[in-house]
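Q: Two folds, back to back.
A: First:
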Amino acid sequence: MSAEGGANFEGYVDPSFPNPGDDGDAAIIIYGYTPSLALGVLGVILFFFSLLLHLAQLFRHRTYYFGVPLAIGCAFETVGYIMRLLSSQEDPYRIVFFVVQYFFIVVAPVFFSAGIYAVLSAMIRKLGAQYSPILGPKAILATFITADVVATVVQVAGAALIGVAESNREDPTTPNNILLAGLAVQAFSFLVFLILLGVFLWKAKDLLKSGSAGQIIEEDRGEVAIIKKVPAIFFIAASLLVYLRTTFRLAETIQGLGSDLQTHEVYFGCLEYMPVVLAVWLLAYPSHPGEWVGRGRMRGLAKA
């Protein structure tokens, strides 16, 4: 899937793709390899169609708290992989292609995480405060979204500084440490969220038996939504996939520039692209909250 990368931050130069030397080109390929055409095409196609699916689900279920951030995240991923395509086919040395793709691909999971946080918040609101995992619904959203935003800003700043340092053949250790700090905060924050999600599910375990967890009455429309066990399992799987992607980025940065994780695109494809695209598709249908959480506020709960 990728070309072989260099083993130090002398940088990688593709012998089959000479550096055009234009304004805006770095002296080396900052990726550590020449991006794959196949991965770029797959990324654009699958994230674009996931965007359409999430928009369809948004209009169908009107779960704006979830559908809007997921649609934005899918749009960001699509743009990011378009930039990787441009790097692959036009100029892998172009700094702006690298920085833009990094920005959109790194920021996109923040929106996916926000949607996941919102689902837990919605479930607590519907089932009642007795199922709250320490933090209330508003506190969950405020705490984890704020942590993600701060962590992502730090990551993007670190990545931009790495691009500048590598293009100038300067020591990128300090920018890499900045990037590492942002990733560490994000990984820790999402781990805490997963623990809280586990606490919530433990408290609500009696409602997740035998495939349905009771009936949530839609206050404004009198409709009934059934919380099902299988979508909940897929939701947990999607959350773990997002966390896998975060831990990969953390490990990649800990290894440092020029490491195997950074200079071989197969790791990017298997541990960045694949977990995220699987999570997005799982969240689009089998675990979409419109299918098992619904909208509106809870007025009563009847055991199945």
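A: Second:
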Amino acid sequence: MAPSRASDFPAAPEGDHQGLTPEQLQTFYDDGYLIIPNALDASTMATLLQETRDLLSSFSLNDHPMTKFSTGEDNKAHVGDDYFLTSGDKVRFFFEEDAFHPTTGELQKPKHRAINKIGHYLHELNPLFRDATLTPLHAEIARGLGYRDPRVLQSMIICKQPEIGGRVPPHQDSTFLYTNPPSAVGFWIALEDATSENGCLSFAKGSHRRTPATSRFVRNKDGAGTEFVGVEGAQFPQDFDVEVNEKEEEVYILGEVKAGTLVLIHGNLLHKSEKNLSGNSRFIYTFHVIEGENEYDDRNWLQPPERGFSELYQQ
């Protein structure tokens, strides 16, 4: 069954300090995601898009380990080498699996058309992306969502390259950024139009209320590589209105959006995207916020830099 399409959502409120309206908050709590058109102004969007292109063109292959980003489908190991595990306080480049020849292993795409994503510390090391992340609007959104001490722990440019941009299977962000209790919310910003042809997101509406976070993506106990383990702590956010799961199969709603749109994604929400078989890229910028007062342990694959995760409520 083809997924249905998301209906129109209210645009971002006027001004930089108003956060979310009551209607928008209710939509987020009910559905587990919120689509906010025109959240990023055209000038900032153009600047970030050009910066993304400059980053893709200027990085060096000379000392690159050619790390591929794998989601772990088809019995392939999820990415977990040292280049990935030590990227929490750096800006690094991860290749699409299909950018390489299946037999020879040689790179068969130009480097600027071969990268899956850039991460994971753009929000501190790149001034342009820092200015677009640690904003009064995002702080007000976090305040409206009830965060006491919101911390930005990772940021990424996801490229979804033409013809080879990989499929991302249904997943929950809390699996990869687990706090006890869960508290992650993704801020996902379209730098280009995201369509069904180039691999837009799809959402299982309301699944955040009926789908517990049952697994975590962690470092192996020997520190080399990654694995998925069961969640021993809370599986839903604190004081959360949980529903009994009576669905045999989730129905996914297409989230086609225009460039400049902000999408908020609850950490327990099931969402996915299909492979980009079109001739157009689907560049987006995303960062994730967690509650700084919740437990974040040393098993998580992403470990905080020496200064700690970035405060969204700037002093």
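Q: And?
A: The radius of gyration is 18 Å.
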